[in-house]
Amino acid sequence: MTLDSFIRAMPKVELHVHLEGSIRPETLLTLSRRHNARLPADSVEGLRQWYTFTDFPHFVEVYVAMSRCLKTADDIEWITREFLVGQAEQNIIHSEATYTAYTLWQLHRLPFEDQLAAINRAREWAKETLGVTMTLTIDIAREVRPEDGMITAEWAISGLGRGVTGFGLGGNEVGNPPEKHAKAFERARAAGLASVPHAGETVGPESVWGALRSLKAVRLGHGVRSIEDLALIDELRARQIPLEVCPTSNVRLKVAPALAEHPLPKLIDSGVCVTINSDDPPMFNTTLTDEWLQLARTFGWGLDMIYALSRNAVKAALLNGEEKAALERRFDEEWRRAKLENQ
């Protein structure tokens, strides 16, 4: 058995991946032609080059351009199906996808109810056809006004029991601290949604403290800059707040200078709960499988470390008791089978 072949075959759970940020260049080109939406390139190769991350403003430019091409509920159902096919191809048995519904309302006045219904049609199809599951984290783009964040909170609450389990906060951390949207998170938490904001990516430990204190986060998107504050590390370890670490994304965003210099090993050694994720796969030229392959090669990980971190993702999934137990059983059964088949 080679470690690479095992990693490709093993069951996986992904907690930090953006639905809109997972659109393939081929799909985006078709959508742009369907809706006569202009893009910086009119070929798949040209779009791949344009996708290649340069800096955060460019990242936002790509993200908005993608959203401009999503004009109908059918478009949303299509990209969700394609996303779930890609997850199934990697044996990602459960995904928790982040989705920024308010952007499509701003751009196209597409009702949230129509957006959610389209995603749920794809979710049900994938469960029955591909054998993979997905839940949603509806997030606020932190640049919007607090009152717009409150609208997002009400939408997310309306999706409880219909696939929505988390309430998130994304976008540019600089100038948009977690406290800005504290009221929206208070409303969402009171209704039963889990608080899972991004924090500690492009802004340091103060962003993570804000997410913990003001938003009562139970899981953190990124959080890697927590390593800069020992008291914060102690807090995360004591409370076992899972971090959704996206290594390639961090390197491309210059949060870490190179994968070999990523704070991930220090976070693990400190006893913080860490999970591995891909963020916006085509935009960073990665997949969850690629993340595992690169990490294993770079840090010399064996099966024990890979299992421990994979199991962290299973335990941190936003599922009810019965669903969590079923996922744990399936994960362990498929892990054992993968080991036997790759001996």
Give an account of the 3D structure.
It is a single chain. The chain is an alpha/beta fold. The protein has one domain (12-321): Alpha-Beta Barrel (TIM Barrel), CATH 3.20.20.140. The protein is 53% helix and 13% strand. The chain is built from 16 helices and 9 strands. It has helices spanning 3-9, 25-35, 44-51, 56-68, 73-89, 101-108, 112-129, 146-158, 182-191, 205-213, 230-239, 247-252, 264-269, 288-299, 303-316, 321-341; strands spanning 12-18, 92-99, 133-141, 164-170, 194-195, 198-199, 220-222, 243-245, 274-276. A 5-stranded parallel beta sheet has the order 1-2-3-4-5, sandwiched between helices. Strands 6-7-8-9 form a 4-stranded parallel beta sheet. Strand 4, helix 9 (182-191) and strand 5 (194-195) form a beta-alpha-beta unit. Helix 1 (3-9) runs antiparallel to helix 14, helix 8 (146-158) runs parallel beside helix 9 (182-191) and helix 15 packs antiparallel against helix 16 (321-341). The longest helix has 21 residues, at 321-341.
